[in-house]
Amino acid sequence: MCGRFTLTLDPGDLQEAYPGLVVPGGLTPRFNIAPTQPVAVIPNIGEYRLDYYVWGLIPSWAKDPEIGSRMINARSETLAEKPAFRNSYRRKRCLVLADGFYEWKQLEGGKAKQPVYIYMKSRQPFAFAGLWDLWHAPDGSEVRSCTIITTQPNELLQSIHNRMPVILPSQAQPVWLDPSEQSPDRLSKFLISYPSDEMMAHPVSRLVNSPQNDVAECIMPA
Fold this sequence. Notes:
Layout: E1 4-7, H1 11-17, E2 30-33, E3 38-43, E4 51-55, E5 73-75, H2 86-91, E6 93-98, E7 100-106, E8 113-120, E9 126-136, E10 142-151, H3 155-158, E11 164-165, H4 173-176, H5 184-187, E12 199-203
Parallel strand pairs: 4-10, 5-10
Antiparallel strand pairs: 1-2, 1-7, 3-4, 3-6, 6-9, 7-8, 8-12, 9-10, 10-11
C-alpha cells in the first residue's frame, strides 16, 4: 500500500516540472502527508489545474463519509470490478502529485518495522495514478476525494513491501487525464510497476510514524 508521501517542492519548481499547470497559492512543502488530509491532484476535468482533494475516496453513493479512511488505496487488479472504484476508473481519474513516498519494512526477528523513504534519483516530482469522486453531504456541501492505485512492487520495492503505488510516466498522463470515458482495456497497460533503476530508497527515523510530524527531518537518512 501507499500510506504516506511527500510533496516538498515550491510552486515554481512544480510548474517547471509540469509546464502549463495552473498552481493555486498556498502550496507549502509537505514531508509527511497522511490519509484524510488534503492532497495535490490534477483531476481529469478538462482543465490543467492543480486542486486539493481529500485523500481517501468517498464513493458518490456512500451514506457515511468515514468510508473514505478505508479507501486510501485501490488495487490495480480489481479496479474494473470493485463498486467503489469501477465508475471512477472509467470516468474520474486524476494525478496525485508527489516527490517521494514511505513504506515500512518488516525487520527480522521481531514486530518492529523500519520506515523507508523512496524517491526518484533525479529528485524530480512524479505523479501517482489516482481516482476521484464527488460526494454530496446531507447539508448540501460537496467533498471531492481521491485514492492512489497500487500494483506489484518493482525490484527495489520487493525487499521493502509487497505493493507499490502506480507511478505514471509523462507519456501516459494525457490519456489518464482525458475527461472522456475510457475502457479498462485501454488503461490497464499503464498500471504497472515503475522502473526500479530510476528510483532510490533509504531508511528514515520513526519520526514519520506520527502524522503530526510534518518536518524535513522525516526524509533524512537514519
